[in-house]
Amino acid sequence: MKAILSMSAVYAACLLFVQDADAQRGPGFRGGRGPRGDANFVTDRDTFHFLLENHKQIKRQVTLLANGVETLTTSEDKQIVERLQEHVKAMYERVEKGNPIRRRDPLFDELFRHAEKLDMKLELVPDGVRVVETSDDPFVVKLIQAHAAVVSKFVEHGFAEAQKNHAIPPADSPSASSASKLTEEQQRKLLSFSAAFDRVYIPALALTNQQMQVPSEAAIARLRAWTDTKSSDVRELLGPVSSDSEPWTTIQNAIEQADALVQAGQLSEAHEALEPIRSLLTEERKRVSLTYPIDRLNEFHDVMESIVKPAMKANLESIDEQFLAQLSEKAVEASTLWSRVEQTSFTSPDFQLTDEEHQKLEQMIAAERKALTQIQHALRDGDYATILQAAIAIKPPFAKTYMLFGDFQDE
């Protein structure tokens, strides 16, 4: 942070924290020390509740600036003013010590991610706080302004608004000169290629993971034949933006390696050989600033695996504070990334989804959200066995979502 945490940022964070505090009260929560070892949790929570309960006595003015906002948060009640100013110190300390609130709200989580790009100037006034929040980053300016609008809703509606999640504002598309050398026609072709590739890639990836020998052989053969046929087209598309053809060569080599491993009956190894391909293509599309909906799933996948794999290896005796802290952090990140999936349209004809598959897609997206919520509940309640089960359970709905974009034919 470049300066002390702003009042609007603090107050918004506090209100979001209330959402988590209420959720954490469930069975067995009756005002103890709060989340593991957080001695200030109860004090901070009670202060946040006080602000929410008295939100009608808080006034707020927001002035939009070209590079951020200027806000004035005040009250005629001296006690409220004191409690508002207390929050500045409490929340600043949380940020400085790396002990922020559990950031379930995508907007606030994203704002925390860009904390180093914020410039915040605070002025204590007799009846409250004046803050100027700015940034040199255009996207962070959007975050600041969206955040300010949500805080105003908190002040207006209190608890009712604090229970909601809030969307991340869309980033501006980079200019063609700075972002991509692809023409519109090349971008359209690359989108079509990406969807067509995934239709043959996903079955090979999934079936090797499922240890299905004969179907894996058919799927990998189809994938290899398709990539060999399309190789020249891909090189033509990627040529204008790649210094060489290494990404596609790497992908072809991985497919050849996976093919050999499948023929040898080593399906797990074949799956691992195929796995990096999705990340390679995601990065290549990012390089040319191409928005491809399935990349939202690919981004979620990496974080999901960082939750599922440790949980599968863990046992009740191996769980410690560090394990829980890392799991909690990754669960928040996964929730944020899945919010982006929920905000993504998968209606492009390139995906060739039927009406039934579209309906199934919506069901699986909702199922993944439910699974992610269960992790939060498990972490709140603190039962280790339930935590591990909930962590592992986030993979099946994701896998079913992802597999909808593959053409499994008769495999």
Blueprint (SSEs and pairs):
Elements: H1 7-24, H2 41-53, E1 58-65, E2 68-75, H3 78-96, H4 106-113, E3 119-125, E4 128-134, H5 138-157, H6 159-162, H7 176-179, H8 184-209, H9 213-238, H10 246-263, H11 267-274, H12 276-287, H13 294-313, H14 321-342, H15 355-381, H16 384-392, H17 395-403
Antiparallel strand pairs: 1-2, 2-4, 3-4
Would you kindly provide a written description of the structure presented here, covering whatever features stand out?
This protein has helices spanning 7-24, 41-53, 78-96, 106-113, 138-157, 159-162, 176-179, 184-209, 213-238, 246-263, 267-274, 276-287, 294-313, 321-342, 355-381, 384-392, 395-403, and strands at 58-65, 68-75, 119-125, 128-134. The protein is α+β, with helices and mostly antiparallel strands. The chain has three domains: 7-162, no CATH class; 186-291, Up-down Bundle (Four Helix Bundle (Hemerythrin (Met), subunit A)); 293-411. It has a four-stranded antiparallel sheet with strand order 1-2-4-3, with helices on one face. A hairpin with a 2-residue loop joins β1 (58-65) and β2 (68-75). α15 (355-381) packs antiparallel against α16 (384-392). The termini are far apart.
